[in-house]
Design goal:
There is one protein chain. The protein is an alpha+beta fold. Helices cover 33% and strands 21% of the residues. The strands form 16 sheets. The chain has a 5-stranded mixed sheet, with no helix packed on it. Strands 1-57-56-55 form a 4-stranded antiparallel sheet, with no helix packed on it. A 4-stranded antiparallel sheet has the order 2-3-4-5, with no helix packed on it. It is globular and about 145 Å long.
């Protein structure tokens, strides 16, 4: 049986009373996130012999929120049914065999917290929710019953195994009730004793109360003589019930007595090598399992994850046995949530446990030892890395704050996984093993930390003292560069660690001294290459395997190639136009050494590009080269690419991981998609090829899973398009939505949905991490990967080019609405409130002295008393007596009439009253009356109640008080998010820099720049900094036009042009090119103009393309190429040979004279449109174009791109002809013919022949004066290809059912002529396909009345040129070498395969299908099964290879340089014609052809043809 993909599943859900269950026969299920994972346990798992007998076999997918409950049906015959409850409010019933929903209900209005399938009634499912509502649902009759027992939160419930109507329910506050559902939920017993959450309720497996000899509990309320049972309620024949609670006790209850009979207190177990962790006591989940066959024993969990087996026979002694007491490290390390018994097919009694430590463990109840462990993931799988030293050791970086190291080759354990959490404490986003040092693993986290783990020791990791400001994207080991490269060999490490972070910097860390400073490599790049402009934001780093070349991927989509030792920039690749996520270099051990120069890259666009950097690296150019053409293009994914990996077992085989939810294997050299893996339910984040098995790949995604899968088992070959990708999107949408974090957000920053989803931003993987305990974050903290909130949070929407709206001012409006409640929110509402506003105006103003006024309106007696007290105070000659003073204090309102001190007391009392009633402004006015302005300001500042009025009065108290008051008011306004107003106040006290900084830090860039421009000197660096900061943020948000204005403002014109070009559409590229041209960046301008023209070319907008190229004088040569391409396309279109007539082509209005040959038409247009007629002009254009090199074509090169490359060579040929440089003309023509021949496009090849060689090659032969010139071999090759094309056309004209008269043959009596034109055969490259297959079937009976014309005879005579002995011999040697290399590669693969089989010690039957699949993949398509040769020994192959290489070495270079049509293929065609039409081909030529086939047809491709034609 072929091995299923192996799964590392998500962690079982925490804090649920029943979210895992198992049934006899060996099926176990656990809820993880929004689905349930199924595990087959026991003999039925088909595990590899010697490994633990279990396998993850599937998943139940359908809920949209967390699954909170899971229970199987425990009735024989119905073990395939199970039920789940979820936070989405539904209870679903499933069939696990089909993994589909049978039925569901959404009866609960509140969160469901407990679920159980009745063990007595086979179609009853009982569920309870947080508000205390219980629903009984009968599946077969689709009926339900609503019960409301207590208004408390239900924590767990369990149906009785002995009585069909009894259900025990445990509540959050510690109450346990037993209800009878047949009596509308009547409470039979209310069991009190626990005083905290009930985590588990377990019924005794035996009915009655004879199984335990329990005396009544010592502190029982009422003694019952001899423990006799009192009269029982009908139906409760007595049974024991056990409950586990957070109060650290287990209680056993008697149902017949309705009370507790035993209490077990959990023991504090000391861990080996340390005391009890103080947090352990507070954190507890107490779950229970009462074994069926051992009713006197009870299993429970304990504080730190240990499991205890309690002995219930001796109630006075608390006796328990610890599971796995003998072996260290087998227990769970954190609390256990669920225990499920399972009986396997071979009748073993097992117990399965799920825990906070994210492991599922299986225990043997006979020995209490752990049989096996299934590890799981509590976060996204961000990173995968295989150790280059310890083969098969896979490191996984996970979002739960732990690194997993999985020994994938373990013989005894499929899941031999070690966890590393010390010192991590956040999401692990990047991993990289040291290339040579064993166990040395570098990791990076989402909070910017970089560290080194020694996986062979238990020491905590070393952490670099230099942190990134944002997420660590990538880590790479590479040779040290300055300043770390200085010093002798022994003073510095041979490899240093490079890390790339989300803020765009690459740091170099010294692994010997991580506590020292890490260096930003940008400084070295800037110094070495003397760069003046802003360096791009780096997002990816990758070193070539030989450590001599480093590639940096950037946020603008460019990739820069640097050379050690000083990081000299040798090349920039302008291919992607979005953030680069992945760069991968091909391995060094391919069959051809040049493959190691291949570099694959993927970005936020879905296209993968492969570049061949051999020529650039080997030529080591003085100034950096710009590459705009990819070597290969891999299209098919529908979302961004996150990771790429080359297969270490094949040449040019690549696997890519994408946000479209799939992993894709490509043959990069042929641009062909091979296999597509769709097993994940989320967006893929990482992928790695197994270092041992060529068929095996590991991938990780944001569905919390890592899958091991086989390429040969995939039914799809390419990523889903259209409907399928929509289905995948639905599948992803069924994943849990991130729960909103409860944290205060600044009120003015409410980014809209559009902002958060804007695709132009980097997708930094930075979710805010929740509480982390012991290095493991809570399960719910892992959210969807989301775009970062835009730093300019006050931009309310994201338009493509926001020219009209001012983001900052809108932000201010919003802040007004949220802060100042007195401002009417909307005008509409204000109009409604008009009448009320008028009433307010008519009301009298609030009194300043309300207390005094009210005291003057008391009863007559009191008022009279006031007068007497006042008179006494005013007219007593001496000091007022104590009585009078007390009276005056009580009647403070008399201060109006007595002295100042009393008045102050009155004002203080009135002020206090105003403050208590919430009128601070009246209090301030009173204090002003008193003259205490400074005090008023201080009080108002402390209370945050300063107003414009108060600050305006502040100068009265002096200049310094005013300064202080304005600063305090500015601070207060900042707290109220009124930053612009605060800045204006700071300006009033001449604090210009502070005002600008305040606006900048709160993203009011527009206002900050306005102030800086108005108040500072033009050369002040602050202004440039503002422009650059705002530009960077706008660029990130996709507002490219505005960002460009900022860069122009900062006199950084280069960046302005770059950012405009980022959009990548023709209009943007054109504007960017014009801008670059204006500011004098001519090289950039030229490259952008060319890109713009190529974009317009794809849309067949010829006029626009020429206008774009017109921008730059240096593109004159390209204009000629595009002109020739346009004329050729037009000609093709008129002949209806091109792929399909495009009505939308907009051609230039050039005089299209049809007279004269094609070359003359071209030169005429060049002369009229580009005034190109002097030799000097031709020479200049030729030199421009000669510097551009294009890659060779393949079967998959798009036809528009192919035509452009061909026309480039044709333009060179025409220019050379005009300069009478016939040697170069021949070479150009030959290159164009070769491009079409290599791509298999016969039609275009023939079109080139007819347009450029209408009369054949004779006129060229005459022009090549010297027959011994170096170009003679090239001419021979060109002539051979011309004849080769004619030969095929001649043969096809004969192969029609009724051959017509033509230039070559004459039909004597015309029969019914075939209406069809000679068939087009595109994409037939005779070298690549079996020639036999590419030949049309000749007509069965040759027509007797066909005669050759003179031209036909001449044409067949010229075919002698094709039968060239030298070329036949050379091609035969080349074919031999290719076959030997292929055989060697196959032998190596088979050898690796056999080694792998030995190492995994698996039976031969398992690997048979895999091997066959591998063989069928590896054998070339042309090789038929019956042709498979018997095994050839390695020495024999080596000998063949050496002989062939020696033969090739003897040939002169002139023959090897220029290609030649396949000689044997031409021989075959001539023999076919000779056999169909005797007399057409001379006997001599036929004999020569047969000799060649016998002599050189010994390779597999030609063997069969030789046998059929030469016998």
């Amino acid at each position: 049986m072929a091995q299923e993909p192996r799964t590392l599943p998500p962690s079982p859900n925490w804090y649920c009373s029943r979210c895992s269950d198992a049934v006899p026969g060996g099926l176990f299920g656990f809820a993880a996130r929004t689905s349930v994972f199924l595990v087959r346990v026991g003999p039925g798992a088909d595990a590899i012999p010697g490994t633990p007998p279990f396998r993850v076999i599937g998943e139940l997918v359908g809920h949209t929120e967390r699954v909170s409950g899971f229970t199987f049906c425990h009735h024989p015959g119905q073990y395939n049914l199970c039920a789940t409850s979820s936070d989405d409010g539904t209870v679903k019933i499933w069939d696990v065999e089909t993994k589909t929903v049978v039925t569901e209900h959404a009866l609960h209005q509140h969160t469901i917290s407990a679920l159980h399938w009745s063990p007595r009634v086979k179609d009853l499912i009982v569920s309870g929710d947080e508000k205390g509502v219980v629903f009984c649902y009968w599946l077969n009759r689709n009926d339900s019953q609503h019960l409301f027992i207590e208004p408390r939160t239900i924590f767990c419930l369990t149906c009785s195994p002995h009585h069909e109507d009894l259900v025990a329910i445990g509540y959050k506050d510690g109450i346990v009730v037993i209800i009878d559902i047949s009596k509308k939920g009547e409470v039979i017993h209310r069991l009190r004793g626990h005083d905290d959450e009930i985590h588990s309720v377990a019924w005794c497996p035996l009915p009655g109360e004879d199984c335990l000899s329990i005396n009544q509990e010592e502190n029982s309320e009422a003694e019952i003589p001899n423990g006799k049972v009192i009269a029982q309620t009908p139906g409760t024949k007595g049974c024991y019930l056990a409950t586990g609670s957070k109060d650290q006790t287990i209680r056993i209850w008697s149902c017949s007595r309705g009370r507790g009979v035993m209490t077990l207190k959990l023991p504090f177990l000391k861990r080996r090598g340390g005391g009890i962790d103080p947090t352990v006591k507070e954190r507890l989940w107490l779950t229970l399992h009462w074994p069926k066959d051992q009713p006197t024993q009870l299993v429970s969990s304990c504080f730190g994850g240990e499991l205890l087996l309690w002995d219930l026979t001796q109630s006075w002694r608390r006796k328990y046995t610890l599971f796995s007491a003998s072996s260290e490290g087998q227990n769970h390390s954190r609390i256990v949530f669920n225990l499920c018994p399972l009986q396997t097919e071979d009748d073993k009694q097992l117990l399965l446990s799920t825990s906070m430590d994210r492991d599922v463990k299986c225990w043997d109840m006979a020995t209490l030892e752990c049989c096996w462990t299934l590890p799981s993931l509590g976060g996204f799988a961000y990173s995968l890395a295989f150790s280059p030293v310890d083969t098969g050791c896979l490191a996984i970086g996970v979002g739960d704050g732990m690194i997993r190291v999985w020994n994938t080759l373990s013989m005894k354990n499929n899941y031999d996984v070690k966890n590393f959490w010390q010192g991590v404490k956040s999401k692990v986003t990047a991993l990289c093993w040291h290339p040579t040092k064993e166990g040395c693993l570098a990791f990076g986290t989402d909070d910017g930390k970089v560290g080194l783990y020694d996986t062979y020791s238990n020491k905590p990791p070393q952490i670099s003292s230099t942190y990134h400001k944002k997420t660590v994207y990538t880590l790479a080991w590479g040779p040290p560069v300055p300043p770390m490269a200085f010093g002798g060999e022994g003073d510095r490490p041979s490899l240093t660690l490079y890390s790339c972070g989300g803020e765009g910097t690459v740091l170099q860390h010294n692994p010997w001294k991580l506590s020292g400073e890490a260096f930003d490599i940008n400084k070295l790049i800037r110094d070495t290459n003397s760069i003046k402009y802003k360096l791009p934001v780096h997002t990816e780093i990758s070193w070539k395997a030989d450590g001599k070349i480093m590639a940096l991927g950037n946020e603008d989509g460019s990739i820069e190639i640097f050379k050690v030792p000083n990081l000299k920039l040798i090349c920039t690749i302008q291919q992607h136009h979005k953030l680069v996520n992945a760069i991968s270099w091909h391995h060094e051990h391919g069959s051809q050494p040049e493959l190691s120069y291949l570099m694959a890259s993927g970005s936020n666009n879905a296209v993968i590009y492969v570049h061949n950097l051999q020529t650039v690296i080997e030529s080591n150019p003085e100034s950096p080269v710009t590459i705009t053409e990819p070597y290969r293009t891999l299209s098919g994914h529908t979302a961004k690419i996150t990771r790429l990996a080359w297969s270490p077992h094949h040449d040019g085989r690549l696997v890519s991981a994408s946000y479209d939810g799939t992993a894709q294997v490509w043959d990069a050299l042929q641009e062909e998609p091979l296999y597509n893996f769709r097993g994940h339910r989320g967006r893929l984040l990482c992928v790695a090829w197994s270092p041992l098995d060529p068929d095996c790949i590991y991938s990780g995604a944001d569905d919390f899973c890592v899958y091991k899968w086989l390429t040969s088992m995939q039914e799809h070959s390419r990523p889903p398009q259209g409907k399928k990708s929509i289905e995948l999107e639905k599948k992803r949408l069924s994943q849990p939505k991130p729960k909103p974090k409860k944290k205060k957000k600044p009120t003015s920053r409410v980014p809209t949905k559009q902002e958060l989803c804007d695709g132009n931003e980097e997708e930094s993987i930075k979710e805010s991490s929740g509480p982390v305990e012991n290095g493991v974050s809570d399960q719910e903290t892992e959210e969807e990967v989301r775009e970062p909130e835009p730093p300019c949070g006050d931009t309310p929407t994201v338009s493509k080019e926001p020219v009209t709206c001012t983001p900052a001012s809108l932000g201010l409006e919003k802040s007004k609405v949220t802060i100042n409640n007195k401002v009417p929110v909307l005008k509409k509402e204000a109009s409604k409130e008009k009448p009320e506003a008028l009433i307010i105006k008519k009301r009298k103003a609030r009194s300043m002295l309300p207390l005094s006024t009210s005291l003057d309106h008391r009863s007559k007696e009191e008022l009279h008393q006031d007068c007497l007290v006042l008179a006494t105070a005013k007219h007593s000659k001496a000091e007022p007596s104590e009585d009078v003073s007390a009276d005056l204090e009580e009647r403070f309102h008399l201060g109006l009439f007595t002295d100042r001190a009393t008045l102050y007391r009155m004002i203080d009392a009135e002020g206090k009253g105003h403050l208590e009633n919430g009128h601070p402004e009246l209090y301030h006015q009173l204090m002003l009356w008193k003259g205490d302005l400074k005090g008023v300001l201080q009080t108002a500042a402390e209370r945050g109640e300063l107003t414009d009025n108060l600050v305006a009065m502040a100068p009265v108290a002096g200049y310094h008080v005013w300064l202080w008051a304005v600063e305090a008011f500015a601070k207060q306004l900042c707290f109220q998010d009124q930053y612009v107003k605060a800045a204006s106040h700071l300006l009033s006290i001449h604090k210009v820099y502070e005002a600008i900084e305040l606006l900048k830090s709160n993203h009011f860039y527009r206002e900050a720049i306005a102030i800086a421009k108005a108040r500072l000197r033009p050369e002040d660096p602050i202004l440039r900094d503002l422009y650059l900061s705002w530009g960077a943020i706008l660029e990130k948000d996709g507002h490219y036009a505005l960002a460009a204005k900022c860069y122009l403002g900062a006199t950084s014109a280069y960046d302005a042009a770059k950012v405009l070009a980022k959009k990548g559409d023709a209009a943007s590229l054109r504007t960017a090119a014009e801008l670059a041209s204006i500011v004098g960046e001519s090289e950039l301008s030229a490259s952008l103009a060319l890109r713009c023209a190529q974009e317009l070319l794809m849309a067949r907008n010829w006029v626009g393309a020429q206008e774009a190229l017109q921008l730059h004088e240096s593109l004159k040569g390209q204009r000629l190429v595009f002109c020739l391409l346009e004329l050729l396309s037009k000609q093709l279109e008129e002949k209806q040979l091109s792929e399909g007539k495009s009505a939308s082509s907009s051609y230039n209005a050039w005089p299209s004279g049809s007279e004269g040959c094609f070359v003359e038409r071209v030169t005429a247009v060049w002369k009229s449109a580009f005034s190109l007629d002097s030799p000097e002009q031709y020479q200049a254009a030729l030199q421009q174009l000669q510097n551009i090199k294009y890659p060779s074509a393949t079967n998959n090169t798009p036809s528009k791109q192919l035509l452009l490359h061909i026309c480039h060579d044709l333009t060179l040929a025409v220019l050379s002809q005009q300069l009478a440089s016939w040697d170069m003309a021949v070479e150009g023509l030959l290159r164009a013919v070769m491009q079409s021949y290599d791509s298999g496009n016969f039609t275009i090849m023939q079109e080139v022949h007819s347009a450029f060689l209408p009369e054949g090659c004779d006129h060229l032969r005459d022009r090549l004066s010297d027959h011994e010139s170096p170009t003679t071999p090239a001419f021979k090759s060109l002539e051979a290809f011309f004849i080769y094309g004619r030969l095929y056309e001649f043969w096809w004209s004969l192969s029609r059912p009724c051959p017509e008269s033509s230039i070559w043959i004459r039909a004597v009596h015309r029969r019914t002529t075939s209406v069809e034109q000679s068939q087009q055969v595109d994409n037939v490259s005779p070298e690549e396909t079996d020639p036999k297959a590419s030949q049309p079937e000749p007509s069965k009976t040759p027509e007797p009345d066909v005669k050759l014309t003179e031209e036909g005879e001449q044409m067949l005579n010229t075919c002698k040129e094709l039968i060239s002995e030298k070329h036949a011999s050379l091609q035969n040697s080349q074919r031999t070498i290719a076959e030997v290399q292929e055989t060697l590669a196959e032998m190596i693969r088979q050898h690796q395969k056999s080694q792998l089989c030995k190492s995994t010690a698996s039976g031969p039957d398992k690997n048979e299908p895999e091997r066959e699949a591998e063989e069928s993949l590896s054998s070339p398509q042309s090789q038929r099964k019956e042709e498979k040769n018997e095994a050839v020994s390695l020495p024999e192959l080596t000998k063949r290879l050496t002989e062939a290489n020696e033969r090739i070495a003897k040939f002169p270079e002139s023959i090897k340089t220029w290609p030649f049509p396949d000689v044997l293929e031409c021989c075959l065609i001539l023999l076919h014609i000779g056999s169909q039409f005797p007399g057409f081909v001379t006997q001599e030529m036929q004999q020569q052809a047969q000799e060649f086939l016998l002599k050189y047809g010994n390779t597999k491709v030609y063997k069969r043809q030789c046998q059929t034609l030469c016998t």
